[in-house]
Amino acid sequence: MAAAALGLSLLIAQSALAFNLVKYLGAAYLVYLGIRMLTRKEPSVEAKQVRAQGARRAFMEGIMVEAMNVKTALFFLAFLPQFTTPEASLAPQLALLGCICVAMNTFVDVLAVFGADRLLQSNAARVTRARLLTRLSGCTMMTLGVFLALARRES
């Protein structure tokens, strides 16, 4: 988010070639991830006990993972500039949009953790649930990749 707010996104926004390159590479990567999920062997559904490390450590590890995740930076570079207005300063707009995006993603992640915890508490139909979730995730990734590739850039 910081890189986008500091103006790297402006370079991509000003260059149709760079924008399309990032867009199509991102779309291809999403389709690849979806195909990989659909074609992989059945995952082991045996849940192992994990020792709790504490909320603070989990929070800090999450920040480190996202800060070093190239996909996160590419997302902010490709997605956020579409929602800015040229009349206002770009950096504050990108910072605000990035913060809103991070807050929404955090909320969804917390919901996903609670949902996964609930699903893992029951042993009944665990294999079927795991297979269904993997297939659904793969199809979702491929669909998002296709939609991204077909999206038109508004001038």
Automatic annotation (TrEMBL):
The keyword Protein biosynthesis belongs to this UniProt entry's keyword annotation: no
Broad class of the protein's primary localization: membrane
One Pfam family cited in the UniProt record for this chain: LysE
Annotated localization: Cell membrane
Name listed for the protein in its UniProt record: Putative membrane transport protein
Coiled-coil residue windows: none
Entry membrane topology: Multi-pass membrane protein
Alphabetized UniProt keyword annotations: Cell membrane, Membrane, Transmembrane, Transmembrane helix
InterPro entries, per the entry: LeuE-type (IPR001123)
MF-aspect GO terms: amino acid transmembrane transporter activity
Ranges that cross the membrane: 94-120, 132-151
GO cellular component terms given for this protein: plasma membrane
Calcium recorded as keyword: no
